[in-house]
Design goal:
heterodimer, A: 111 residues, mainly beta, 7-stranded mixed sheet, 4-stranded antiparallel sheet, 11 strands, B: 113 residues, 6-stranded mixed sheet, 5-stranded antiparallel sheet, 54% strand, globular
């Protein structure tokens, strides 16, 4: 059974650029959640999608956005990158009830 | 006050002993509680879930929940060096259809051989 696939694994971007990260959930999982992980703040909730609808959004600026496609694959986009956006971005897929399976993450470095 | 609080550690436990990890949460209406383990450089993986007051055992792991005290704990019996990791406590909000998990910042556990 394939796990959660996140691409790319690593990214280096310059301040002001934008970036798109991709997540393919486990087959049959319709819920996809995104988290930002930094050493100081831990795991911070970005948003959750279910059947192409954003059900929840965390306390991040509007530069952070996402979407989900009909095949449950999800993308998140960060525009006008700032140095503070450097982090590990984790995607989690779920059948529900908080039982997450995380992907390996995308390590974003903004320089 | 943070929504989910954990002692960041590091917590050092001798091999074979019991490791005890604690977590408190602020939302009294929370219904679902989880422990995730994260090895260095890896992503978190679910190890335990608990939904009602009391103890839940799975192999060497026991999760304990006390909703009145808003307290969750994880006990690891017969600790092994492979248990060395960061343990994340997570709480699910109470409203239906809300999949958001709020995580603590984690407790770093080191098992000393």
């Amino acid at each position: 059974k394939a796990g959660v696939t996140q691409t790319p694994r690593y990214l280096i971007k310059t301040r002001g650029q934008q970036v798109t990260l991709s997540c393919s959930p486990i087959s049959g999982h319709r819920s996809v959640s995104w988290y930002q992980q930094t050493p100081g703040q831990g795991l911070q909730f970005l948003f959750e999608y279910f059947s192409e609808t954003q059900r929840n959004k965390g306390n991040f600026p509007g530069r952070f956005s996402g979407r989900q496609f009909s095949n449950s694959r999800s993308e998140m986009n960060v525009s006008t990158l700032e140095l503070g956006d450097s982090a590990l971005y984790l995607c989690a897929s779920s059948l529900g009830a908080g039982l997450y399976t995380f992907g390996s993450g995308t390590r974003l470095t903004v320089v | 006050q943070k929504e989910v609080e954990q002692n960041s550690g590091p917590l050092s436990v001798p091999e074979g002993a019991i490791a005890s990890l604690n977590c408190t949460y602020s939302d009294r209406g929370s219904q679902s509680f989880f422990w995730y383990r994260q090895y260095s450089g890896k992503s978190p993986e679910l190890i335990m879930s608990i939904y009602s007051n009391g103890d839940k055992e799975d192999g060497r792991f026991t999760a304990q929940l006390n909703k009145a005290s808003q307290y969750v704990s994880l006990l690891i019996r017969d600790s092994q060096p492979s248990d060395s990791a960061t343990y994340l406590c997570a709480v699910r909000a109470s409203n239906f259809g809300n999949e958001k998990l709020t995580f603590g910042t984690g407790t770093r556990l080191t098992i000393i051989p």
